[in-house]
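dumping this here before i forget
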Amino acid sequence: MTSYARTRRLHARVPLLIASVVLSMTAWAQVPVIEFEALTPTTLTLPDGAEANVQYRLTNRSLRPRTWTMMPIPGISVLAGAGLCPQPSTLAPLASCVLSLRLVGSQMGSGVHGGPIVCWEQFACARPSAADLLAITVVASPRALITATPAVVSFAAGGTATVSIANDAASTVTAQALTVDVPPGSTIDVDLGTCVDPLPPAASCELHLGAIDPQPTAILVIAGSNTVETSIEVTVTDTLFTDGFEGIAED
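structure:
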């Protein structure tokens, strides 16, 4: 083979070698330093009164240790424990840990779309692939429709009154954890009576009110952990003697 022929073959190989090197460098550049692998679904519809967990496996694909921290997201906290990624977290080369996220619907507004993002230097960050980004939509939880009867209550000091709380038949959920909010300054006593138990749709319960001293009119608000609010107007009058007449204050 002549020198000219050998030179032509060498020149023909040079572009191929350059292309091979460029492809190799491009492939290396596309390997993330911190790699995400979704272990749970990342697209969720979450009621505003509910919580959920999302997990990713994070792997350090670089050749040196990386110490990283997740950027904060409202309503999402990082769980700690064996095998989980603490904050901050350090991963040796090729080491992995599980990033376990606790989602609280009531703290997330309308939801979260994007992330999580972890950073190990000021401008060095990583996130999941587009298919595995968080896509959390928060929706309103169904609420029990409760009513109070009577809505206006009056009884004498030293006596009691009974109020019936009903969960409307149109409700789709059982009313939970009923409470009565008495305004500051009022000394009206509340006994939840049978209302300490969950109240299914179309059911009712009774609570009892009492007071030792006369009280000006007060608005008591009644609600459960998953109900609308209802209220009653309560007035405690002067004490009645056993003969039914009101006491007369002495001068």
